[in-house]
TrEMBL record:
Subcellular location: Secreted
Residues annotated as signal peptide: 1-20
Keywords tagged on the record: Collagen, Disulfide bond, Secreted, Signal
NCBIfam families noted in UniProt: GGGWT_bact
Source organism per UniProt: Porites lobata
Sequence ranges assigned to domain Fibrillar collagen NC1 in this UniProt record: 162-204
The protein's name: Fibrillar collagen NC1 domain-containing protein
Amino acid sequence: MAVTILNVLIRISLLHNAVATFPKANLYRNLKQQTAFGNFQLYQHQKLVGTKIASSLVSDIIDCTFNCVSETLCKSFNIAASPDSENLYLCELLNIDKHRVSIDNLQVNLAFNHYSPWVIVFFFNSTPPPPPQPPPPVPPPLRLNFLSNISHCLIIITFVHQGKTCSEIKSHSPQATSGSYVIDPDGEGGYQPFSVFCDMTDKNRVGVTVVGHDSEDRILVKGYEAKGSYVRNVVYIGASVTQLAALATNSTNCEQFIKYECYHSTLLIYGYGWWVSRDNIKIRYWGGATPADSNKCACGVTNSCVVSSRGCNCDKNDAIWREDSGLLTEKSHLPVTQLRFGDTGNSEEYGYHTLGKFKCYGMT
């Protein structure tokens, strides 16, 4: 993938700080000055196995590198070696790099290339001396440099797109593409700005702010009989609940997907399960319902539950796997900060919970 021009805006007044810091770090960010740079080495046809912060489809290596450098938690990234049918590349941002994990984590994978930080000498002329080559069988690294065409990936960027929300960024810059951005929901002088993923194609391209967390996987609930005895605290990536509350306040709509799968385990009936709002309030309606629908899931709102007299499918409490799921949309309650369940203490009682990313869109 040959690259000769790096399409990134540079704020020259900030270049001095980047240069001064460069010898000390290979991945540098300064949110206060809204500047960052990254220096990455290619590991061709290899993939680093680790925790993914975010995945997205990008147009080229530049977009993927930009996403990593501007995401405060990103340490390295994997990118597909070949584009898909839409000529886009899968870009995976990781919270680790190859230098901080076992060598076994970097695995041969013909479908991907991996990039981890690597410090090199900073050149200002256009014909720098050739850098040392890595030993075989690792191929010479591809390099991208906005100053000279050498074989490393050096990105220096400034966060030129900033607003209160992704919708505001999209409104001011209609050409903005999906990726990582820094937002400041409560404006200057309030809480610190933070990095989010902006989905610029969802919801009719209005600009959706997306925040991930540590409880997105399908997680087993087993061995907790008492009401609410299972406790899962939800920790959001890169932002506090107070910052996310400011995001909700400055958005027209917010939503979060929630699901509970059950086998001989009740959900809302008899008070066994609930979730907790950002204000630490116990909430007893489920996805697809509203605050007016107490003790109901989506099927209870539409009168389609397996038992018509009960508000959720799981509240039938039988030996069949059932599910209650849907979107939570009351933005004054979001994001979800805790999940609580019970009725899984016996050998034949099981539950699984899944919680989606926190998403907000539209401008107030």
